[in-house]
Design a protein that fits this description.
alpha/beta, Hypothetical Protein Ychn, Chain: A, 5-stranded parallel β-sheet, 7 helices
Amino acid sequence: MKQLISLCAAVTLLATMLMVSTAAEAEDRYGKQKVVYHINYNGGEDDRMYRGAMRNIQNHINAVGAENMEIKVVLHGNGLGLLASALDNEALQGQVLELKGQNVGIHVCNNTLRGRKISYEDDLFDVFEEDIVPSGVAELSRLQQMGYTYIKP
């Protein structure tokens, strides 16, 4: 019995060391990152493109560590469909909330809201006044000037 307890303790210690080593290795390899994800396209059948983009962002966080990331998502044009679809798509809702819970900022283009007569309060999922930016494309440029890496999933 003592051998079994010792073996379990050794396995637990090894697993803990591996997790710490993997986290340290990711930080050593990737360092701190500032990233802006650009979404301005339709989600396609079953919102597959949107769900895929959200998975890409989560995979990025998993690889680098949320504590090492500053992520913004800029939505404009057809990209606002992601938050419109999330009103009725629970899987997409979960992905959006999960990312926001990891401090991912979602920025919504006011030009698109006005041009398409979209109410962020009624027509989009989990959007607040502070999430609105004057222009999606101008926001992309501003963030890149601030050192954010541009990614279009």
